[in-house]
Amino acid sequence: MSDFLSFLTWLLATAPTLLVYVVGIVLAAVFWRRYPRPALLTLIAMIVLLLLAVGGTFWSFWLPQKLLEDGVSTQQVGVILGASAFVRSVIVAIAMGLMLAAIFGWRRDRTRLMNGCHRPLEGYLPGSDSPANLAIQTRKFGE
After folding, report:
1. What distance in Å separates the CA atoms of residue 25 and residue 85, rounded to the nearest whole number?
2. What is the DSSP letter of 72?
3. pLDDT band at residue 59, thresholds of 50, 70 and 90?
4. pTM here?
5. What is the 3-state secondary structure (H, E, C) of 30-41?
6. Three-state SS at 119
7. What mean pLDDT do residues 89-102 have?
8. 121 half-sphere exposure, CB direction, 13 A CA radius
9. Is-contact 29 43, C-beta < 8 A?
10. What is the predicted pLDDT for the residue at 91?
């Protein structure tokens, strides 16, 4: 029973991080219709991070005990735990990559339009030869 209490204590210690993951999942669901691709990437990343946090904590408690019961030396347990930590690190890196793609990846087209000569004129309506548009063009380029 003490192992289970230790596991719960460790989960409680990581509660703020777990709460961030849950809030991220909720926000991804809320913004799904408005920003489907960023919401999907965020949702996947948050679920992966949440599962990794809970599952990784369980794994860290269960694996060494199981290996030692099976007669594996402490040195080998250390090597296995190091490899396990590396795999967890790779998974976290992938999840963070998904978050970066969610944050910056969807802005590619909009950013390109706002740079240099592709920048739209303020108040200008493309495809319209209205007097207001002609005045804006003259004011911006006519000097």
Report:
1. 25
2. -
3. confident
4. 0.69
5. HCCCCCHHHHHH
6. coil
7. 96
8. 16
9. yes
10. 96
Give the C-alpha separation, 39 to 26, whole Å.
10
Cα angle: 42, vertex 17, 78; to 5 degrees: 105
Helices (H), 1-143: 2-13, 15-30, 36-69, 74-104, 108-114, 131-141
Residue 61 token pair: 């408690």
pLDDT for residue 107 is more than 70: no
**Which residue type is seen at 78?**
G
Residue at 53: amino acid letter: A
Alpha-carbon distances, residue 117 vs 110, 120, 143 (angstroms): 14, 8, 17
Give me the residue label for tokens 């990437």. Answer: 41
